[in-house]
Amino acid sequence: MPKKMQRFIYSGKKPQITQHEIIEGQAEVVMFGDSLTEGGLWSELLFPTRAYNRGVGGDHLSHMLLRIEYVLSLEPKVVFILGGLNDLMNGKPVVEIMSSYEKVVKTLLDNKIEVVLQSTLKCSRKLDFCEQVINKIDVLNSLIKKLAERHGVAFLNLNKGLSSNQDGLMDQYTFDGVHLTGSAYKYWAQQVKNHLKKVSI
After folding, report:
1. Residues 6+ apart with CB under 8 A from 145
2. Rounded average pLDDT over 108-120
3. Residue 177's domain is classified under what CATH number?
4. Where in the sequence is the domain holding 112, given as residue range(s)?
5. Would 200 be classed as within a structural domain?
6. What does 9-75 look like in DSSP terms, one character per residue?
7. What is this structure's pTM?
C-alpha cells in the first residue's frame, strides 16, 4: 500500500497533513510529535528562531514515521521529538514503540539533521487509565534516554519540571490530565531554548 494511502487511512485526511504536503519553507527547528506538540504555538514561543510545528493529534510513533517526509522537506537544523503516550494508551508494546522511534531517529540522522529526544510526558494520576500506563511511561523514557545515548543525541527530561512521582502530570500544567496549559508550554519552550543556545541556534 502506498505511504500516502496509509497516511490517509490512519489520519482521516487530517487537515494538518494535507497542509504539510503543500507548505514549503526552510526551518531552523521542527517540533515533531502528537497533540501535545500540536498544541504549542512554537513559532511564537521560540521566536525569533524559525520553528515549524509538525505535531498531529492522535499520532503514534509509527504514524510519525509515515509523515517524516514533511519534516525532511523543511531541511531543519534540529528536530525535537516527543511521542509515545498515544501508543501506550492504545496498548502498543514498548518494544514496538521503540522500533518506530529507532527508525525515526535514524532517518533524521541519515539526512544530517540534529535530533533531540524528549521524554514522553506523564499523565495525571487522577485519571483512571493513567494508573495503567504510568509505569510503562517510566520504562519507555528509560529506553528513550538509552536510545539518545546510543546515537549520541540530546535527551530532554520534560517530566522533571512538569510531573511528580506522586501526581504524575501536575495540576497546574494540565486542564484535562493529559494536555498542557500555557504555563507548561512556557516551561517546555524554555528547555528547548536552553538547548538551542548550547548549539548556537
Report:
1. 117, 119, 155, 157
2. 98
3. 3.40.50.1110
4. 3-155+164-193
5. no
6. HHHTS-HHHHHHTT-----SEEEEESHHHHTS-HHHHTTTS-EEEEE-TT--HHHHHHTTHHHHTT-
7. 0.91
